[in-house]
Design a protein that fits this description.
The chain has helices at 14-26, 30-34, 59-66, 69-72, 138-148, 151-154, and strands at 37-44, 55-57, 73-85, 91-102, 108-120, 123-129. It is of the alpha+beta class.
Length: 156
Amino acid sequence: MSTDNPAPTAPPTPTDLYRHGLRLLLDKDIDGWVALCDDHAVFEFPFAPDGFPERLDGRPAIAAYMRDYPAHVDLQDIPHLEIHRTDAPDTIVVEMRATGRIVATGAPYEMAYIAVVTVKNGRITHYRDYWNPLAVPASMAEAKSSWEKSSWATSS
């Protein structure tokens, strides 16, 4: 028996979706990364410093926040990545370290992150990012003035 219709594929697991998202960020494909988010996704940044949003509601707000990311941070590698499953099958906890350079200064960029990510129907619905603003390198402070003029500081 032959069929022309392929079997439906299951949506990606939260782990697979997250790993795919990291590849998109490393490739500077912000539109592709934003497309992984649900229309009504919520992003939270509990430790956001002054001038940065603590919460983003919906894909348009997330897109506006992320669109200038490659102009500020040249993300080059994720040398450490651990993804932990939780009792909730749609939620993962991510520990990672990202490295690259600050575009405005050429200075090195290194940041550790812990994120709690929920995925439903193949899209990110909730992303709580516990990045540490106290660990921001001094070189990022030099770039902050350009950020304040960008979508990063105005997307709240």
